[in-house]
Amino acid sequence: GAVVSQHPSWVICKSGTSVKIECRSLDFQATTMFWYRQFPKQSLMLMATSNEGSKATYEQGVEKDKFLINHASLTLSTLTVTSAHPEDSSFYICSARSGGNEQFFGPGTRLTVL
Amino acid sequence: DAKTTQPTSMDCAEGRAANLPCNHSTISGNEYVYWYRQIHSQGPQYIIHGLKNNETNEMASLIITEDRKSSTLILPHATLRDTAVYYCIVRVGRGGATNKLIFGTGTLLAVQP
């Protein structure tokens, strides 16, 4: 299957700082990327859908000003957690959809906010 | 997207077939059944998907009932590395802003030595 990478794989930051997570589709172009969040022992929760060149669509209850998403190219989407707080500590996973409509997931980024 | 219902957990002996059920009684005619799995602290991995017919690939087989209200994922010879949470998801096959993978709680499959 196609490869999706995320960087960094883990990050620890101080409360109040911003953290940027990158998601790249390495061997295909992804017109649509998705961002998920997963808390311990819970399922993945979809946060937003990102389309290249346009604004992201956020799921209900997800603050767009706190979780900034940029999908500047067909192979890169970024998620910035602004003014992070301990409750934002989570496993963030991106996914990219290929032209064949298959959806591939990145390995995830573990964010810990102190 | 239609909701799915899966058992919370299942055990399977190593080397035996693992049969994971999924109910999707409100599935629409244009919705596919997808299976993904997530090994601890990793991103989900695509396994298989189907619409009406049974499907098989190198990882697993997917059996969909004739009325499409339920399906079963079969891992023919489970190994310890197959221990993971298995998610059954129904989704419209193509296009559209609502074409999203929405994860339920999944089934934790524990393969026992």
- How far apart are the first and last residues' alpha carbons of chain A, in Å? 36 Å
Instruction: State the strand order across the main sheet of chain B.
Output: 1-9-8-3-4
Task: Report the end-to-end length of chain B measured between terminal Cα atoms.
Answer: 37 Å
Summed over residues and divided by their number, the pLDDT of chain B gives a mean of: 92
Bin the strand percentage of chain A.
Answer: over 45%
Order of helices and strands of chain A: EEEEEEEEEEE
Proportion of strand residues of chain B: over 45%
Largest sheet of chain A: 7 strands, mixed
- Whole-angstrom Rg of chain B: 13 Å
Q: Percent range for helical residues of chain B?
A: under 10%
Question: For this entry, what is the oligomeric state of its chains?
Answer: heterodimer
List the helices and strands and how they pair.
The complex is a heterodimer of chains A (114) and B (113).
Chain A: E1 4-7, E2 10-13, E3 19-25, E4 32-38, E5 45-51, E6 57-58, E7 67-73, E8 76-81, E9 90-97, E10 103-105, E11 109-113
Parallel strand pairs in A: 2-11
Antiparallel strand pairs in A: 1-3, 3-8, 4-5, 4-9, 5-6, 7-8, 9-10, 9-11
Chain B: E1 9-13, E2 18-23, E3 31-38, E4 45-50, E5 55-56, E6 61-64, E7 70-75, E8 84-92, E9 107-112
Parallel strand pairs in B: 1-9
Antiparallel strand pairs in B: 2-7, 3-4, 3-8, 5-6, 6-7, 8-9
Overview of this protein structure:
The complex is a heterodimer of chains A (114) and B (113). Chain A is mainly beta and 114 residues long. Chain A contains no helices and eleven strands. In chain A, strands 2, 4, 5, 6, 9, 10 and 11 form a seven-stranded mixed beta sheet that branches. A four-stranded antiparallel beta sheet of chain A has the order 1-3-8-7, with no helix packed on it. In chain A, β5 and β6 (57-58) form a beta hairpin. Chain B is mainly β and 113 residues long. Chain B has strands spanning 9-13, 18-23, 31-38, 45-50, 55-56, 61-64, 70-75, 84-92, 107-112. In chain B, the strands form two sheets. A five-stranded mixed beta sheet of chain B has the order 1-9-8-3-4, with no helix packed on it. Classes of the chains: A mainly beta (114), B mainly beta (113). Chains A and B meet through β5, β9 and β10 of A and loops of B.
